[in-house]
């Protein structure tokens, strides 16, 4: 699967010590941070928004992978970019033709991603694989960290691996941990979003190394 990319999800961080959490993830070897934006509408939960993305941006030069679990991404894309997002991912369920959103994201200078929920067939995103840089396969229903991985999404990852143009990142998000990351890598994922499976442990460096070792070819 090429270079190992693990994207720690800040949703599982201790927000009292956000800068310290980011330093610990950097020290562990992270090159990406995954930021989960929830609107209480597309998903039945709220998380954090633009001020936190700005604060994270001030704390680090890591690549910020911003996952927009929101119903009207077009209204917020530019401000998330100004806040410091490097990747902006929108859900296919709110944008059945995501190309205008990709164009908006690309105009800001960010990379664009498309995400699909477990019940959404992979066919929904296949027409757009040449128009974005990242496909984010949800392996739980979005809205909450700490849920169990749904192995029925593995065939979707396999199908995307077969069809993906060179350079398209295939990311998997939800319930990724030491028990499930190997299956995701075997199916062809190239980016692994890990919340509780990393930040739920005391020693991030050790845990990061263990996870990375499980996805090496
Ligand atoms: C779920 C989010 C995930 C979540 C992953 O709505 O999109 O990124 O933070 O958390 P874990 O790894 O604990 O499932
Ligand atoms: Zn996410």
Automatic annotation (TrEMBL):
Residues annotated as binding substrate: 9, 67, 143-146, 173-175, 195-196
Active site: 36, 173
EC identifiers of the protein: 5.1.3.1
Keywords, sorted A to Z: Carbohydrate metabolism, Cobalt, Isomerase, Manganese, Metal-binding, Zinc
GO cellular component, one term: cytoplasm
Origin superkingdom: Bacteria
Catalytic activity: D-ribulose 5-phosphate = D-xylulose 5-phosphate
GO MF terms, alphabetically ordered: D-ribulose-phosphate 3-epimerase activity; metal ion binding
Binding annotation for a divalent metal cation: 34, 36, 67, 173
Class of this enzyme: isomerase
UniProt keyword Isomerase present: yes
Named cofactor requirement(s): a divalent metal cation; Co(2+); Fe(2+); Mn(2+)
Pathways involved: Carbohydrate degradation
Cofactor binding annotation: Binds 1 divalent metal cation per subunit.
Gene Ontology BP term (one): pentose catabolic process
Similarity annotation: Belongs to the ribulose-phosphate 3-epimerase family.
Role description: Catalyzes the reversible epimerization of D-ribulose 5-phosphate to D-xylulose 5-phosphate.
Protein name per its UniProtKB record: Ribulose-phosphate 3-epimerase
Top-level taxonomy: Bacteria, Pseudomonadati, Planctomycetota, Planctomycetia, Pirellulales
Portion of the full sequence shown: 34 to 250 of 257
């Amino acid at each position: 699967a090429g270079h190992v990319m693990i994207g720690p999800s800040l949703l599982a961080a201790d927000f009292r010590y956000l800068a310290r959490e980011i330093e610990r993830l950097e020290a562990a070897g992270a090159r990406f941070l995954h930021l989960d934006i929830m609107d209480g509408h597309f998903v039945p939960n709220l998380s954090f928004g633009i001020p936190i993305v700005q604060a994270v941006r001030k704390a680090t030069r890591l690549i910020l992978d911003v996952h927009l679990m929101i119903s009207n991404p077009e209204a917020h894309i530019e401000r998330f970019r100004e806040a410091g997002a490097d990747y902006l991912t929108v859900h296919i369920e709110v944008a059945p033709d995501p190309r205008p959103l990709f164009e908006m994201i690309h105009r800001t200078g960010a990379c664009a991603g498309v995400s699909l929920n477990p019940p959404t067939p992979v066919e929904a995103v296949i027409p757009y694989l040449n128009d974005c840089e990242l496909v984010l396969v949800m392996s739980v229903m979005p809205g909450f960290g700490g849920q169990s991985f749904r192995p029925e999404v593995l065939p979707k990852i396999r199908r995307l691996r077969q069809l993906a143009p060179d350079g398209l990142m295939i990311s998997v998000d939800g319930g990724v941990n030491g028990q499930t990351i190997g299956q995701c890598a075997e199916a062809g994922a190239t980016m692994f979003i890990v919340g509780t499976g990393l930040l739920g442990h005391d020693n991030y460096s050790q845990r990061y190394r263990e996870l990375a070792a499980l996805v090496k070819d």
